[in-house]
From TrEMBL:
Residues 175-219 have a biased composition (Basic and acidic residues). Belongs to the R-spondin family. This is R-spondin-3. It holds the Pfam family Furin-like_2. Residues 174-243 are annotated as: Disordered. Activator of the canonical Wnt signaling pathway by acting as a ligand for LGR4-6 receptors, which acts as a key regulator of angiogenesis. Upon binding to LGR4-6 (LGR4, LGR5 or LGR6), LGR4-6 associate with phosphorylated LRP6 and frizzled receptors that are activated by extracellular Wnt receptors, triggering the canonical Wnt signaling pathway to increase expression of target genes. Also regulates the canonical Wnt/beta-catenin-dependent pathway and non-canonical Wnt signaling by acting as an inhibitor of ZNRF3, an important regulator of the Wnt signaling pathway.
Length: 243
């Protein structure tokens, strides 16, 4: 063993040096050089740090540096995240997105342009004027539609979601709410009055019949009973026989 190589290394090193740190790593760990001031120290990690990508070889697994504009990468030529000021597109970091694409400042990626989409128009509303559908000849009717897809930054903006047009209706008078309510109230009172009148008449009729009946009963009690007139034939019959 070389004098600069130590035994019993720590931190996943297979071999190490007091001056240079890890020289080789245990299986499945990645070897990477970290700069500390003017010196580079070898370390062994389970995964590569930001700005590096891992490569596996039969004798050693190493962490290689990504391109300068990549924050993280899968290989040297395929970035997965770009540094500030660059937009990711197909594994590359670009300062400006290609034609037909737009920069998404939230994800820092080049994405497709999305245009506005709306639903179909609703049917026209009834012809109205000042919130009423009667008492006029000319008014307006409206229709609506909804936005089903909002546009992206460079997409076509949404059109109007409401439309209005003039309309003509047959002239008719509006029934005043107060007058209609008054008529209903008068009808109700009249109906109650008629019912009360019929009830009073029925009560008077029953009282008159009861009074007549009581008067007849009183008359029958106060009048003397009439005696039965004698039968003349029966009274004269014995005298004729005696003679």
């Amino acid at each position: 063993v070389h004098p600069n190589v130590s035994q019993g290394c720590q931190g996943g090193c297979a071999t190490c040096s007091d001056y240079n740190g890890c020289l080789s790593c245990k299986p499945r760990l990645f070897f990477v050089l970290e700069r500390i001031g003017m010196k580079q120290i070898g370390v062994c990690l389970s995964s590569c740090p930001s700005g590096y990508y891992g490569t596996r070889y039969p004798d050693i697994n190493k962490c290689a540096k990504c391109k300068a504009d990549c924050d993280t990468c899968f290989t040297r030529n395929f970035c997965t995240k770009c540094k500030s000021g660059f937009y990711l597109y197909s594994g590359k970091c670009l300062e400006k997105c290609p034609d037909g694409l737009e920069a998404n400042n939230h994800t820092m990626e080049c994405t497709s342009i999305v245009h506005c989409e709306t639903s179909e128009w609703s049917p026209w509303s009834p012809c109205m004027k000042k919130g009423k559908t009667c008492g006029f000849k000319r008014g307006n009717e409206v229709r609506f539609r909804e936005i089903v897809q909002h546009p992206s930054a460079r997409g076509n903006p949404c059109p109007a979601t409401t439309e209005s047009r003039k309309c003509i209706v047959q002239r008719k008078r509006c029934q005043k709410e107060g007058k209609g309510k008054k008529n209903r109230e008068e009808k109700r009172k009249k109906s109650n009055k008629d019912e009360s009148k019929e009830t009073r008449q029925e009560s008077k009729g029953r009282a008159a019949r009861r009074q007549n009946r009581e008067q007849r009963e009183n008359n029958n009690k106060t009048q003397p009973k009439k005696r039965k007139a004698p039968n003349k034939e029966q009274d004269l019959a014995p005298a004729d026989t005696a003679h």
